[in-house]
Amino acid sequence: MSNQIHDKISKKMSKTDIGKHFGISSQAVGKWFIKGKVPAERVSSLCALLNWEITPHELRPDIYPNPTDGLPCGNKCMSNESLAVNNDIHS
């Protein structure tokens, strides 16, 4: 996880609030950021908690290699439309 993603998460929600959501301590959440990896079993739930403004791919590109991997259909469809628009602009 990059510093940019860490900052993006921190602006949306505190480690304490994330920890409360998962029933763990803020220190445990802090370890995710220190290690640079959210546990695989927490990725989807964390993305949903953050309203999908951070994607599974951004958190764990090692297990979600494509930008739309792990997204619910509504978000995946919106993301694909955005990618298509960007491709048209740059063609």
Protein model, in words:
There is one protein chain. This protein has 91 residues and is mostly helical. It has a single domain, classed as 434 Repressor (Amino-terminal Domain). The protein is built from six helices and no strands. The longest helix is centred in the C-terminal third of the chain and has 18 residues. The radius of gyration is 14 Å and the shape is globular. 16% of the residues are buried. The C terminus is likely disordered. InterPro entries: Lambda_DNA-bd_dom_sf, YdaS_toxin-like. One of its GO terms (molecular function) is DNA binding. This is Antirepressor protein Cro. Pfam families: YdaS_toxin (PF15943).
What attributes does this structure have?
YdaS_toxin-like, 434 Repressor (Amino-terminal Domain), Antirepressor protein Cro, Lambda_DNA-bd_dom_sf, DNA binding, 91 residues, mainly alpha
